[in-house]
Amino acid sequence: MSPRREMVSKLRGESLVRRGLMRRYEGREPLRIAPELNVVKIGGHGIIDYGADVVRPLADEIGELAKTYKMLVVTGGGVRVRHILDIGLDLGMPTGVLAELTSKISEQNAIMMAVMLSRYGGMRIHTADLLDIPMLLKMGMLPVTHGTPPYGLYEYPPEVGMIPPHRTDTGAFLAAEVVGAKSCILVKNVDGLYTANPFENPDAELIREISARELLDLQMEDLVLEDKVVELLIHARNVHEVRIVNGHKPGMLAAALRGENVGTVVRV
Question: What's the whole-model pTM score?
């Protein structure tokens, strides 16, 4: 057998799956690319699908806030995602194909939000452009991207069912994590996380603060954010909390950016 060719490095000969090797690099602080950035995810189902009456005031609020706070706006999908999922599931499409199909919807919403924010420096960027964010912020731009993570056809199989587990909440969280953002705020159509669906159960109680592990242990039937965000939060290196606020109420996003205790915060 011919000798294996090696290059001199501390990982020479490693399989990259050895547990001892993993532990060797545990606890290292990653470089934070944009530590003052606030990632603001605009829900498709909870915000954009409501149209001008909700989107225009929120866009103006974001535009004004961008004069003070550094932001990356991330868009969700909404009703059109549900439509294509309905058809795709009915036709037996694999999970990776469903992920590829749904990604196009949040991209459309990103284009519309960028246009809405154009007079405030709004600029549509792609997921591959995240490393350009520090430069764009210094230029006074307000970057806008879509929230679907770029797994596409390589999307993870879900534990249950066929629906892609990494959707736009998860994409916003992963963007915040990779650039080392200051915060990750999910803008929805409710005041935060409730003990049950508040639209169906008027007795549902608002949860102001909860840990990720506690939330997972509750095994709730319905959540206002994706399960995958809560799972990833436990292992995150840069982002240690996610806040949920109501984008139908003017001033809630501003309060969250100021660090006030509004909505619901899910912490490590």
Answer: 0.94
